[in-house]
Amino acid sequence: MTISAEESYQTHILQGVSRTFALTIPQLPPELCKVVSNGYLLCRIADTIEDEPVLNAQQKQDFSQKFVQVVAGETDAQQFSQALHPLLSDSTIDAEKDLIQNTDKVITLTHRFNPRQQAALLRCVRIMAKGMAEFQQNSSPAGLADLNSMNLYCYYVAGVVGEMLTHIFCDYSPEIAKHEPELKKLAISVGQALQMTNILKDIWDDLQRGACWLPQDVFQQYGFDLHDLSAQQHSSEFAAGLGHLIAVARTHIHNGLRYTLLIPKHETGIRRFCLWALGMAILTLRNINHQRQFSSGQQVKISRRSVKATIITTNLATRSDNSLKLLYAWSTRPLPSEQAVDLDKLWAICNQQIAEIL
């Protein structure tokens, strides 16, 4: 089968912008691999706009809106990239600069997908761009006001991606679509599991950039003020707050396992795509839990050996629900009531925000 230049570029650039997704996405069936890769790259373009320090708030908002219009087919992709690319600083990695410069190739593929797939991609980009812009404008080294704010931030940058994937999976398989209502609700939690893990791992790296995505109210429960946050000064109070968030993230990972078990056993590629990400998140959270005094993301980053072990053990258990439950047992241990996740409340909050954006 002949592979188009746009598909070849997409495969190539995915390796440059994300080693993790370049590893997990190819596990999907070929019909899904192409559209999910495209969806990830669209999200990465939106993320690159928000992360570029040279752009001011108004420029970020303008470029984000233009990019949404590009995805919708209302604005020319080349004009967008020609305007944005020269403004990118050395803070943006070369692979992301290349991605911006070749936005038209990514968009060409986007517009070849079926209507439901395109609608899922556009919805994701629209919600993500709007939400990220709001949070980036109000980011602070003193953290977010409360856990609800953290939940909403996680939704904008990851939960909405889980929803996008669910729409795509349900379009691909009528058998998966039978569980669509439950999958959509759990998808938000899956995204939060992965994003909370990244937030906890990157606390100190984010702080160096003047941002913190931790919730003030959680740490105040344990007597710690996030205004005093410092990689050089740790306290038992801060460690207790961190433990609380690790427990919350663990509950979201459990929901991620519930999500995966709703995928038919014969869809091994989709299951592996989900399980590899969840497995790596569990190992990262364990590292953080055992080293709550860490001062750099590198100190709690999982090794390549651990990644390989996760892949091997998960692959052996992919078709067995009981084996997977045993393998992911750490995420299913009972939690104190104050650390439990109210999925219905989370769902309601996110849907309220969706209604305001769309």
Topology (SSEs and partners):
Layout: H1 5-17, H2 19-24, H3 30-51, H4 57-71, H5 77-84, H6 94-101, H7 103-110, H8 115-137, H9 147-172, H10 174-177, H11 180-201, H12 203-208, H13 216-221, H14 236-261, H15 268-290, H16 297-300, H17 304-317, H18 321-327, H19 343-357
Instruction: Categorize the overall geometry.
Output: globular
- Helix count, DSSP H or I runs of 4 or more residues: 19
Number of strands: 0
Low-confidence stretches: none
Q: Which structural class should the secondary elements be placed in? A: mainly alpha
Q: Give the mean pLDDT.
A: 90
Proportion of strand residues: under 5%
Rg, alpha carbons: 20 Å
Please summarize the sheet with the most strands.
none
- Helical fraction equals over 70%
Topology pattern, helix = H, strand = E: HHHHHHHHHHHHHHHHHHH
Distance between the termini: 39 Å
